[in-house]
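U., I forgot to send this yesterday:
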Amino acid sequence: MAKGSARARVAALVRRLAPGGSAAEQAEAALALERLCHDKSQYREYVRGCGGVAALVQLLAPGRSGAVQERAAAALSTLCTDNRQNQDGVRECGGVAALVGLLAPGGSAAVRIAAAVALAYLCVENSDNQDSVRECGGVAALVRLLAPGGPAAVQQQAAGTLANLCNDDERGAQNGECVRECGGIAALAGLLAPGGSPAVQERAAAALTGLCRKSTRNQDSVRECGGVAALVALLAPGCSAGVRKRAALALGNMCHSNVQNQDSVRVCGGVAALVGLLAPGMAPAARARAALALANLCSGNARNRDSVRECGGVAALVALLAPGASAALHEQAAKALSNVCSGNTQNQTSVWECGGVAALVGLLAPGGSACVQKVAATALGNLCARNTRIEDSMRECGGVAALVRLLAPAGSAAVQENAAGALCNLCINNARNRDSVRECGGVAALVRLLAHGGSAVMHERAANALVSLTSERAGP
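Result:
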C-alpha cells in the first residue's frame, strides 16, 4: 500500500473512534488499528500523527462499553511496542491513570487483562511511565488482582506486569519497594502453591526474581512468607520446564549475599533439586539458571559447598563445561565451580577427578568469550589455591600458558585481572609453575600490567603474582 493511502486509511479509522459513534464501530476501528500496527511498525507513527493515541485513550473512560475499553487498551499495547514516543504520548494524554482505573474491582476479566498488558508495554524501558504507574496507584491495583480466588488469567497478567516493573534496571528497586509495601510479596508467594496454574506460577516466580534483585529486605520477606519452600517445590520433575527455570532463577536471586536464605534453600532440599536441573535432558536455559543458583547458594557458605558435592553436583557442573555447550552455560557452570571450590579441598579434588581442570583450561582458548574466560580464570585460581596436586595438573594441561596469553595488551581488563590472580595462586610454593610462567613470558606480561594504567585491583593482582614468582613464601 502506498504511503499516502496508508495514512488515509489510518486517518479514516481514527475518525471512527470519535465520540458519538456507536460502540460497535469504535471497537471495530480500534481492532483494525491494532492489527495494522501489529503487522507494520510504521503504522504506529501514522496513528500518532493522526491523533489516534488521544482518541484511543478517551475510549478508556468510565462508562464506555467493556468491549470498547478492551479493544482500545489492546490497540495502545501494540502502539507502544518498541515506540518511546507513543509510550510518552499515552502518558501525556492521561492514559496511565485511565488504564489503572480499568484494573479496579467490578470490571470484566478481559478488560483488566487488556489494561494490565497495556501498562506492561507502556513501561518497557520507560522510567517516566513507571513513575506514573506508581503515582497513580497502579502497583497497588495490580497487587489486588493477585488475590486468591480471582481468575487465573487476570492473576497471570498482573504478575507479569509486576515482573516487568520489578526487573527494570533503572526503577526496579523503587517498584519492588512499592510492591512489598502493598503486600505484593505475600500475594505472589501465594500464587506458587501446588495445584495452581503453571502460567501463573511462572509469572509469579518472575516477579519474585525481580523483587529480590539487590534487596535484602525483599529477599527476607520472601523467605518469611514461605516463598523458599514454595519455589523449591516448583523445581520438582512434575512441574513444567518454564516453571522450573523461573523458580531456579528466583532462588538464585533470593540467595545472593543472603546466608539465611542460602541455608533455608538447603534445608528445604533445594540443593539436590537444583542439581537435578543440571541433568543432560534438561533445556540449556534451565541448566544455566540452576548453575547460577548453585553459584549464589555456595558464595560464602561452606555447608552448601559440601552439600553440592554430596548431591553429585560437582560432576554435573563439570559436565556442563563440555565443548559445544553455549557460552552462557559455560559461564554459569564455571562460576558455580569457582564458588564450590573456594576454600574447600574436597571439592577441589572432586573437580580435578572429574576432569574439571582440563575442561576449565579449555575455556581459556583464544577466540572464546571474554565473560567465560574471566569466570574460568577465577575458577582455576580457586581450584589450585594451596593444592599442589592441582597446581601441577593445571600446568600439565597447558593452563599456565593459557593464563599468560590472557594477559596480552589487547585483552579484557577483567580477564587480565582474574588471570593474574590465578597465576598468583599457581605459583605459591610451586617452583615448576614459577619456571613455567617465566618460560611463557609471564613476567614481562605482569610487569606490563603494572606499567600501563589499569585499575587498582589489576595492579594489586599483578604485583601479588610477581611476588609469588620471586618468593618462596606462602603467598602475598
